[in-house]
Design goal:
Layout lengths: L3 E4 L2 E4 L4 E7 L9 E6 L6 E6 L5 E3 L7 E6 L4 E6 L8 E7 L4 E2 L3 E6 L1
Parallel strand pairs: 2-11
Antiparallel strand pairs: 1-3, 3-8, 4-5, 4-9, 5-6, 7-8, 9-10, 9-11
Length: 113
């Protein structure tokens, strides 16, 4: 089993930035595509960004140009740099190891207007 632990969430004003980090417990992290999802109150969980083992990236239209996903296989981390944050970005953000289907516990991001 792979444990994923997210950090970096918090409260920020609109227009601000946050960087989320997800660290994996095992070195097999390098064999999995990784994703960040988010879930706002009363809404379904949605894909925000993903990165393959070869570091190809994909983004939801709503975050393109504002968010960037990174991975560091040596450190077993996948980060999400979030810039120009909007109130509609408020959600719990989850890290996922796609190959294994494992999720982190989530980290809250709140953007005030």
């Amino acid at each position: 089993q792979v444990q994923l632990v997210e950090s970096g969430g918090g409260l920020v004003q609109a227009g601000g930035s946050l960087r989320l980090s997800c660290v994996a417990s095992r070195s097999i992290f390098s064999f999995s595509d990784m994703s960040w999802y988010r879930q706002a109150p009363g809404k379904q969980r949605e894909l925000v960004a993903s990165i393959t083992t070869g570091s190809s990236t994909n983004y939801a239209d709503s975050v393109k140009g504002r968010f960037t996903i990174y991975r560091d296989n040596a450190k077993k981390t996948v980060d999400l740099q979030m810039n120009s944050l909007k109130p509609e970005d408020t959600a719990v953000y989850y890290c996922k190891a796609d190959h294994f289907g494992f999720w982190g516990q989530g980290t809250q991001v709140t953007v005030s207007s």
